[in-house]
Amino acid sequence: MTSRLRPGDFAEITAFAAVAQARSFRSAARDLGLAPSTLSHAVKALETRLGVRLLHRTTRAVAPTEAGERLLAALAPALAALDGAVAGAGRLEGEVAGTVRLAAPRLAIRTLVGPAMTHLSRTCPYLTLDVRTVEHPGDAVSDGFDLGIQLGDTISQDMISVALTPSFNTAIVASPAYFAGRGVPIHPRDLTRHACIGCRSGPGGSLYRWRFGKEDQEFVVDVSGPLVTDDPDLMLTGALAGIGLWHGVEHLAHPYIEDGRLVRVLADWSPINPGFFVCYTNGVPLAPAVRAVIDAFKNVGRS
Q: Tens of pLDDT along 1-28?
């Protein structure tokens, strides 16, 4: 059977698929190493040839039309097969290869993804892990990601989830200099009189409310202070600098507690939070590259 593809058609199809998956000409161009204008011309040429609009374009966003969604769904298996064939041409038989797209919050990237990359780069040299920072992956897997990392209390019921880490303890800490000028809180309600470093960790960047529990008592405290951020490293830096109290994962603060640069308070009130899970779509067979990434995360989580 004669192919209907013409010279240049594959470039147009690749351009459309990259933009539709990234929801951005700029992001897709960066991933492909091309200029955004090159992708724009290619997509327009494909739309003209097919006689149908494939992408909705605004100054802020790009999204596939209904026809674009159908075309993208039909193209996905073929593009994945082509990508695998090209990758396989330069590797030994049985080597794991391909690109795995991951959405994960900053804390998971720091504690799991970073260490896992050391292992993956050594054992799977033909694998590429494409990581995007998404504080609340939610439906990220359905948005084109292969995997998402989430806390155990935020997982959708229609997803398959694999535990990566055990539950973790939280800690309230500040520098000795901070406590020297403010005193030490002995009850969660005392925090309303202290400078606290706020964490934007809820959906839409909402401010996290500090939660405490002891025996049958529970407290939720709305804190305030001189710094609000979604970056855990900046929060810890602020605590070390003496600007306020930090509420976070205990093992991140542990080295500084050990050497005396931070002092822990309200330890008997600090709750235990669910650990991280890696999630993927139910009913979809896992590619060898995806399985290799999950195994690497599990190994890090157990260490």
A: 344 545 556 788 888 888 888 888 888 8
Chain segment 211-250, per-residue pLDDT in tens: 998 888 888 999 999 999 988 889 999 999 999 999 988 9
SS3 label, residue 13: helix
- Is 168-273 in the same CATH topology as 97-161+275-302? yes
Instruction: Give me 229's structure tokens.
Output: 């951020």
> Domain residues of the chain, as ranges?
9-88, 97-161+275-302, 168-273
Please state which of the four CATH numbers 1.20.1600.10, 3.40.50.1460, 1.10.10.10, 3.10.450.50 is assigned to the domain occupying 9-88.
1.10.10.10
Alpha helices in 137-240 (DSSP H): 176-182, 232-240
Architecture of domain 97-161+275-302: 3-Layer(aba) Sandwich (3.40)
Q: How far is CA 229 from CA 110, 203, 211, 218, 224, in A?
A: 16, 14, 18, 25, 12
Kindly provide the residue ranges of all beta strands, DSSP E only, lying in the chain, ordered along the sequence.
Answer: 55-57, 62-64, 97-104, 126-133, 147-151, 159-163, 168-174, 198-199, 210-214, 217-221, 228-229, 246-249, 263-265, 272-273, 276-281
Residue 135 makes CB contacts below 8 A (sequence gap 6+) with 105, 106, 201, 205, 230
Contact 232, 110 (CB under 8 A): yes
- Asked whether the CA dihedral 129, 135, 138, 143 is positive or negative, the reply is negative
CATH number, domain 168-273: 3.40.190.290
